Amino acid sequence: MLGANSYRIMLHMILADEKVISREEPSLYLQRALFLRRTGSFPFLRVKIYVGDGEGAVLVIELVGLTKTYGRRAKTTTALSHLDLKIQKGEIFGVIGHSGAGKSTLIRCINLLERPTEGEVWVDGINLTELSKSELQQQRRKIGMIFQHFNLLSSATVYDNVAFPLKLVNTPKDAIDRKVKEMLALVGLEQHSSKYPAQLSGGQKQRVGIARALASDPNVLLCDEATSALDPQTTNSILKLLLDINEKYNLTIVLITHEMHVIQNICDRVAVIHQGGIVEQGPVTEVFLKPQHAITRDFVSRDSEGGLALEEAVMANAGTELPAGVSSKLVKVSFLGDKTYEAILSRTVRKTGVDFAILQGTISTIKQVPYGQLTVRFEGDSAAIEQTLSELTAEGLDVEVLR
C-alpha cells in the first residue's frame, strides 16, 4: 500500500446515486473505502485512486514486489523476482532486455494474462490481483494490447477484426460502425476495411492490431515486441503512429523490445530488465547518454553506428607515443539539444591550447531531440587538459574520462 507521506492520494468515489465525492486523505481512509467496496457495505459503482508525485504526475500502473515462477518445488524457474515499477499517465514507457530476461512475462502480468506468483498489480488504482474473474474482465477492457505476430482472425475482414472486441460486449451496431471507421481512419486503413489479413503487409496487419486494441477506448496500451517482425522502414512508420496516438489521446503506452533504437525514438522513460529484475531505469536521455549498468552499456554500444566492435577497436588503438612532458586523456563527450550543433569543443581547445583527435563520433536523436557523442583524445599540458574538461562541463556537456 502506498504511504500517505510519500504521495498525494486522490480518491474519487462514485456512488449509486451518481453523487461524486472527492477528497484528499491519508491511506487509512483509502483502506477503509476499499474495504467497504469489497464487502458490499456501501453502494460504490467504482473506486479509483489517482496517485501523483510532488509535481502532480499521475501513476497509472504500479507493480509491487512482482514475482513470477514456473514449475513446481525443486524444478522452478524464476522469470521475475520482487520487481517494482511505476508508470505515469500519458507517458511512453519502454522495457528493454535480452531474450529470456523476463520482459514478455512482465508485460503480460500487467493485464494478468500471466498471473504473478507474488506481488500486486495496480492499474488505474485497482489491484487487479484481488479482482474476481468478472471484475478482471471488465478492467481488461481498459487495457489494450498488440502483439509481435498480430493475432488477427484470419477468416475475418479488417472491419470485423476491429469490431470484434466491441461485439463481445454487445455494443450497438451503429456505435460499432462509427468506432471501427474512426479507428481505421486513425491508422490509415480506411480503404482496406473489406480485405482479409492474408491480403495485407506486415505493417498493415500491425495497424489493424492497433486499431482493434484502441476500439475499446483503453487507458493503457501494451505493446509486446510490436515491431520485431517488421522491416526497418515499416518499424519507423509504426513507431510514428504510436507516438501520434500517444500525443492525440494522452494514452499511456508500455512497450517491450530488445531494440534500443525503438526506445530511443519514442519512449519517455525506460527500464532495463535482466534475469528477472530491473537493473536500471530513468529518462531515456539519461539512461542512453549515461548508462550505469553493463547490460545497458551493451545495448547502447551495439545500437550506435559501428557497434560494440568499433568502440572496442577505438579503446585498443587510442594510445600513441607522446613526447616527454606531454599528457593525454581519452574522453567521451556527450551533447544534447541545441548544444549538439554548437562549436563548443573547437572554441574550448583554442582557448586552452590543447590538441585533440576525434576517434569516434555519432549524431542522432532521442525522441526528436538531437544528441551527439564524441570519443576524443586530448594531448598537451596536464593542467590545460583538466581546464579543458572543466570548461566543457561548465558549458553543459557530459564528460566521461575513459582513461
TrEMBL record:
Domain of life: Bacteria
Gene Ontology biological-process annotations: amino acid transport
Assigned GO CC terms: plasma membrane
CDD domains: ABC_MetN_methionine_transporter
GO molecular function, one term: ATP binding
Keyword ATP-binding recorded: yes
Family annotation (SMART domains): AAA (SM00382), NIL (SM00930)
Keywords per UniProt: Amino-acid transport, ATP-binding, Cell membrane, Membrane, Nucleotide-binding, Translocase, Transport
InterPro entries named in the record: AAA+_ATPase, ABC_transporter-like_ATP-bd, ABC_transporter-like_CS, ACT-like_dom_sf, MetN_ABC, MetN_ABC_transporter-like, NIL_domain, P-loop_NTPase
PROSITE patterns on file: ABC_TRANSPORTER_1 (PS00211), ABC_TRANSPORTER_2 (PS50893)
Residue span(s) of domain ABC transporter: 61-300
PANTHER family per record: AMINO ACID IMPORT ATP-BINDING PROTEIN, METHIONINE IMPORT ATP-BINDING PROTEIN METN
Family: Belongs to the ABC transporter superfamily.
Name of the protein this chain belongs to: D-methionine transport system ATP-binding protein
